[in-house]
């Protein structure tokens, strides 16, 4: 007989129910059944005058098993468990440690009393995967902390520190030390009372909000800040029902809203994104004996925007960092920017002064490669030119110790060619950070043909240590992210040639959910930067953008850095404004090449740009550049501003239907020619009637 993940025992006259479902004590089907059985034992136990509910190991209890949420189960329902806890005639104390979240916290809300370890953090983060609490959380939490605080907690999905939880009424006591003895003591002290508070019967905290404008005000705020996301609005509806309806009706309304959310494409997309990010850390086929190398010290070559950000990322994680640049003047400029960034963090309350001082003291500078002789890892962030890379890697090869890893931050160049500049190609790898590197979470980890397994394992491990999401990709022009992006920006430029304006393209895509449209991004990253990429691509016989980009470059319109690009910018502002000069450049170019159409619909703009990503993503997946379609989605959500609630380009295609996507691609192929040739993988999947990308 299988061991139950829930045990019951009596300690000092108190029944102790322990959830032991490692590693996080997820409230699975088996845990729910075990809880119901343990509650019955506690009620029938004549020795136990009170009850404590606790989790084994490092956590009280976490949420439900997401897989189980989508599959019917005939066992104990979470609402029945919570009702059984509330209805126990003996006092029930939840002993909260670790991160009691989601279903775990919902169970605790049904206990009569809650005591938390000082370092515990509590929350209902279901909204982050497109859901809302579905076990009474939207009904009980407002009754404990008030509707406004409940809205803040549930809509944000953020965790609440134990001390704050006590302040707002979420927990009754906070203890610094062993939680179980303190919980037993609290339970015994309450055992003499004839009645214990049932959260579902409380009303004092919600009564003031009946008839108020709180909920409509919060909906207005969501329409401004998160207009696309459905789950947040459902959370407001559910909490509003707690204020205005009897508990049983509110609970019914919560379940209705939860089921709606579960069936919504947004939750499917967000759940996919959640698991895809975790899967990205796994390298299929890795030998079990492969171990990462030990990295104790790091060097960064280049102190510019990227180099400085990379140095900050390592210093923030506690690594000593040496920054090397060609001369002291460049180093002084770069490190001054680093110091300014830290000062900004202190001003905004994200870092204290001692923390800033510690990080700055971890970064030292040099102009001499000999000072890198003993470092374990070097990240090169020099100018994106193969000649510059060659000189840097030859110098590193001469200066650094055997076993040091050389990582290039190149965004498009050939890692194998870069590795060939050294006598140790197995120690060379790509680590494509995204800008700003101290903020953006993504790192594309690029494996060359000779990159050793332990170097790949080390790069992935280091990415995790510095708080990044490492995604392993193969070596090709542009790797995964930028290779797909080139198709996207090229199509956007062609749409511009056909008659759309930059604002029309950008508006269509931001209304669809992107953080920025392609022409605002051109202006942000620099039209000159993109022009240089275009020139290199043209020499390789590969399309990138269009000749219209050359006109903007020739006019000195480089984007925000010059105050004018596809848009114009007021001094000190990043807000894009219409510019008749830009319109004139576009119109003159159209007259030369001859516009093919006068306008492009918003729907077609979205399809042609997003499906350009999807189609190239399918080619990348088919070629083995990435291990999984979810790796592409993780890259695009975390590196390119793709909305997580769309799931990433590949998941979006699944949700639309691969057959529908292929049908549109076939139409585009007939209209526009070979650049829209459907990917062989997509065609084969549709022919085989397979609705999902290979995993």
TrEMBL record:
What is the name attached to this protein's record?
3-hydroxyacyl-CoA dehydrogenase NAD-binding protein
List the pathway annotation: Lipid metabolism; fatty acid beta-oxidation
Q: Where in the cell is it found?
A: Peroxisome
Say yes or no: keyword DNA-binding present. Answer: no
Which BP terms in the Gene Ontology apply to this protein? Answer: fatty acid beta-oxidation
User: One short Pfam family name for this protein?
Assistant: 3HCDH
Question: Can you give the residue ranges of the 3-hydroxyacyl-CoA dehydrogenase C-terminal domain?
Answer: 478-569, 605-690
Please report the stretch or stretches of sequence annotated as the 3-hydroxyacyl-CoA dehydrogenase NAD binding domain. 297-475
Q: Which reaction does it catalyse?
A: a (3S)-3-hydroxyacyl-CoA + NAD(+) = a 3-oxoacyl-CoA + NADH + H(+)
**What keywords were assigned to this record?**
Fatty acid metabolism, Isomerase, Lipid degradation, Lipid metabolism, Lyase, Multifunctional enzyme, NAD, Oxidoreductase, Peroxisome
* Residues that span the membrane, as ranges: none
Give the Gene Ontology MF terms in alphabetical order: (3S)-3-hydroxyacyl-CoA dehydrogenase (NAD+) activity; enoyl-CoA hydratase activity; isomerase activity; NAD+ binding
The domain of life is Bacteria
In which broad location class does this protein mainly occur, judging by the first location in its UniProt entry? other
Q: Which InterPro entries match?
A: 3-OHacyl-CoA_DH_NAD-bd (IPR006176), 3HC_DH_C (IPR006108), 6-PGluconate_DH-like_C_sf (IPR008927), ClpP/crotonase-like_dom_sf (IPR029045), Enoyl-CoA_hydra/iso (IPR001753), NAD(P)-bd_dom_sf (IPR036291)
SUPFAM superfamilies, per the entry: 6-phosphogluconate dehydrogenase C-terminal domain-like, ClpP/crotonase, NAD(P)-binding Rossmann-fold domains
Protein's organism = Rhodomicrobium vannielii (strain ATCC 17100 / DSM 162 / LMG 4299 / NCIMB 10020 / ATH 3.1.1)
């Amino acid at each position: 007989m299988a061991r139950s993940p829930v045990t019951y025992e009596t300690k000092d006259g108190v029944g102790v129910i322990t959830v032991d479902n490692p590693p996080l004590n997820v409230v699975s089907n088996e845990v729910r059944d075990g809880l119901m059985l343990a509650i019955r034992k506690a009620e029938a136990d004549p020795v136990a005058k009170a009850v404590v509910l606790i989790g084994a190991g490092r956590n009280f209890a976490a949420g439900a098993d997401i897989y189980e949420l989508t599959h019917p189960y005939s066992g104990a329902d979470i609402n029945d468990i919570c009702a059984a806890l509330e209805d126990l005639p003996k006092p029930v104390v939840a002993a909260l440690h670790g991160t009691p979240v989601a279903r775990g916290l919902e169970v605790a809300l049904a206990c009569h009393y809650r005591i938390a370890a000082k370092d515990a953090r509590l929350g209902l983060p279901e909204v982050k995967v497109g859901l809302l609490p579905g076990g009474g959380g939207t009904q009980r939490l407002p009754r404990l902390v008030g509707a406004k605080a409940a809205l803040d907690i549930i809509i944000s999905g953020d965790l609440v520190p134990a001390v704050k939880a006590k302040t707002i009424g979420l927990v009754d006591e906070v203890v610094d030390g062993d939680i179980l003895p303190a919980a037993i003591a609290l339970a015994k002290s309450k055992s003499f009372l004839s009645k214990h508070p049932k959260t579902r019967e409380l009303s004092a905290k919600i009564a003031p909000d009946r008839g108020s404008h709180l909920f409509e005000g919060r909906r207005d705020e969501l329409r401004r800040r998160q207009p696309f996301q459905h789950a947040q609005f459902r959370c407001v509806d559910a909490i509003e029902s707690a204020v205005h309806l009897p508990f049983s009706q509110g609970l019914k309304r919560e379940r209705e809203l939860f089921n709606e959310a579960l069936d919504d494409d947004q939750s499917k997309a967000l759940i996919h994104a959640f698991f895809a990010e975790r899967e990205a850390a796994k390298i299929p086929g890795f030998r079990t004996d492969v171990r990462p190398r030990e990295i104790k010290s790091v060097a960064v070559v280049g102190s510019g925007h990227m180099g400085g950000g990379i140095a900050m990322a390592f210093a923030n994680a506690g690594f000593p960092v040496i920054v090397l640049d060609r001369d002291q003047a460049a180093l002084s400029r770069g490190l001054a920017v680093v110091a300014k960034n830290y000062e900004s963090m202190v001003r905004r309350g994200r870092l204290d002064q001692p923390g800033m001082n510690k990080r700055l003291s971890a970064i030292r500078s040099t102009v001499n490669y000999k000072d890198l002789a003993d470092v374990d890892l070097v990240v090169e962030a020099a100018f994106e030119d193969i000649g510059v890379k060659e000189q840097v890697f030859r110098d590193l090869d001469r200066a650094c110790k055997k076993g040091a890893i050389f990582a290039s931050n190149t965004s498009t160049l050939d890692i194998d060619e870069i590795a060939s500049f050294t006598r140790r190609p197995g120690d060379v790898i790509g680590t494509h950070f995204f800008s700003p590197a101290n903020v953006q979470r993504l790192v594309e980890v690029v494996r060359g043909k000779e990159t050793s397994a332990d170097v790949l394992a080390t790069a992935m491990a280091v990415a995790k240590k510095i708080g990044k999401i490492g995604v392993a990709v193969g070596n090709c022009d542009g790797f995964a992210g930028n290779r797909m992006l080139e198709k996207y920006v090229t199509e956007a430029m062609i749409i511009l040639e056909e008659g759309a304006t930059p604002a029309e393209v950008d508006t269509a895509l931001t209304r669809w959910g992107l953080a920025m449209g392609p022409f605002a991004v051109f202006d942000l990253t620099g039209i000159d930067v993109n022009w240089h990429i275009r020139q290199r691509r043209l020499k390789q016989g590969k399309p990138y953008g269009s000749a219209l980009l050359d006109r903007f470059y020739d006019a000195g319109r480089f984007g925000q850095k010059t105050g004018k690009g596809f848009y114009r910018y007021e001094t000190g502002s990043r807000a894009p404004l219409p510019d008749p000069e830009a319109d004139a450049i576009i119109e003159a170019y159209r007259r030369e090449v001859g516009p093919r159409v006068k306008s492009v619909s918003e729907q077609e703009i979205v399809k042609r740009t997003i499906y350009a990503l999807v189609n190239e993503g399918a080619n990348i997946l088919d070629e083995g550049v990435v291990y999984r379609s979810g790796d592409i989605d993780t890259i695009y959500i975390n590196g390119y501003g793709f909305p997580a609630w769309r799931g990433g380009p590949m998941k979006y295609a699944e949700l639309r239907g691969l057959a529908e996507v292929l049908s549109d691609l076939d139409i585009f192929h007939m209209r526009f020619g070979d650049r829209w040739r459907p990917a062989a993988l997509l065609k084969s999947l549709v022919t085989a009637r397979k609705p999902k990308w290979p995993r």
